[in-house]
Design goal:
By secondary structure, the protein is of the alpha+beta class. It has one domain: 4-Layer Sandwich (Metallo-beta-lactamase, Chain A). It is 33% helix and 20% strand. It contains 14 helices and 17 strands. The strands form 4 sheets. Strands 2-3-4-5-6-7-8 form a 7-stranded mixed sheet. A 6-stranded mixed sheet has the order 9-10-11-12-13-14. α9 packs antiparallel against α10. The longest helix is centred in the last third of the chain and has 25 residues. It is globular, with a radius of gyration of 21 Å.
Length: 398
């Protein structure tokens, strides 16, 4: 899933490598889902997905052109879950919703599932306008504050060196520098100074129902999903999408991170949800078939890991050189950085479980396959990695 939180599009950075679109590859299992609603919200129209819970859409200025937001009727006020990115179109969409849907009742609570601009961008604006309470997990809040406060017209040297180590052609250095590092701030209104921390297992009362916070990791540091305990409803954010998969990337600020291990562990953990809830995702249609989708998302990454391992068995590869194993269409512009981050994440997972080894030549990392991936239970190896598994879902549901 594309997120324009750090860089403007750059042309031809990828040397026009022919690669596969990871969003298409991750859609192979989507046919096992059910879509209870025949339409999607348009403009200020909303769809009531459960009593007092309304599905709306806020337009986005990117190729991923919308975000689903959810409006929860509290009787005398509203709770808003996710907001869209800062900008004229987003503000106009909210003003139309205030006029046509929210009416005279104020927004008393704004919840952001995670830090990306399409989810967080107008949270500060809504909180200021309505004097609302703001809730978010701590890691997401602090990371968002870090990116917002450190926005810069100058592209950081550490970010550039990270890209060069991963095999980006040095000829593109000037183009990369010109991109600057202030685009997260452009998409996010100043954050509320105060917030209420969401934690794994936190209990919320929303719309006359009791909800549990279930944390997922990998796409972002501490993504909050909300599972309703009174009826089968699951606000999934970007953790479980019906038609695309969220980007899972390694970034320069944590260059040796293993986010795909956290992502797979989080998806596997959510298979412990006992009900078959109506899933309210951040992109795409509302759907049923959570467990099918979780299995499909896990399987799509296991397939990519096998292809990547085979590709690195043929020859040593830089992360940029792994694109043909992971993608099948030309990647350029901002999508290049998403694709590179995801390629590194897959390499790091293989490295963490002993299936590739890393070397450096002339300041660039290369990866070579080890052992036989067909003989390895990848998920079991991931479960055994220190710091990766969260406590069992059964523990927080009690």
């Amino acid at each position: 899933m594309t997120k324009s939180e750090t860089l403007e599009p750059l042309e031809a950075v990828s040397d026009n490598v022919e690669v596969v679109d990871h969003r298409i590859a991750a859609s192979e299992h989507a046919d096992n889902l059910e879509y209870p609603f025949q339409t999607v919200p348009v403009g200020s129209d909303v769809i009531e997905v459960a009593k007092g819970i309304f599905w709306a859409r806020i337009p986005l200025p990117w190729s991923l052109d919308h975000i689903n937001v959810y409006l929860v009727d509290e009787g005398d006020s509203w709770t808003i879950i996710d907001t869209g990115s800062q900008g004229k179109r987003g503000i106009e969409a909210w003003e139309a919703l205030e006029k046509e849907v929210l009416g005279s009742k104020p927004v008393k609570h704004v919840i952001a599932t995670h830090m990306h601009p399409d989810h967080l961008g107008l949270a500060g604006w809504l909180v200021e306008k309505h004097g609302a309470k703001f809730s978010m997990t701590m890691l997401e809040y602090l990371m968002a504050q870090h990116l917002w406060l450190n926005a810069s017209d100058a592209f950081p040297e550490e970010e550039l060196q990270h890209l060069l180590r991963m095999g980006v052609n040095p000829d593109f250095e000037e183009k990369i520098r010109q991109a600057g590092f202030g685009h997260f701030k452009k998409g996010v209104h100043k954050l509320p100074y105060h917030y209420s921390r969401l934690e794994d297992g936190s209990v919320l009362q929303l719309g006359g129902r009791t909800w549990k916070v279930i944390i997922g990791r990998g796409h972002s540091p501490e993504h909050a999903c909300l599972l309703c305990l009174d009826e089968p409803l699951f606000i999934a954010g970007d953790q479980v999408l019906p038609e695309i998969t969220s980007n899972v990337s390694v970034y320069a600020r944590e260059p040796m991170a293993n986010p795909l291990a956290h992502w797979l562990s989080s998806l596997e953990r959510m298979q412990g949800i006992k009900t078959d809830p109506l899933v309210l995702p951040s992109h795409g249609p509302v759907f049923k078939g959570l467990h099918n989708r979780l299995s499909g998302l896990i399987e799509s990454h296991l397939v990519k890991l096998s292809r990547l391992h085979a590709w690195c068995a043929e020859d040593i590869r830089t992360p940029v050189e792994t694109f043909p194993a992971l993608y099948r269409r030309k990647i350029d512009g901002f999508e290049f950085f998403l694709a590179l981050g995801e390629a590194i994440a897959h390499l790091h997972l293989l490295e963490s479980i002993g299936l590739v080894e890393r070397s450096m030549k002339k300041g660039v990392y290369y990866f070579k396959a080890l052992n036989d991936i067909e003989r390895v239970d990848v998920l079991a190896k991931v479960r055994a990695l220190p710091g990766v598994p969260l406590r069992s879902l059964a523990d927080i549901m009690n």
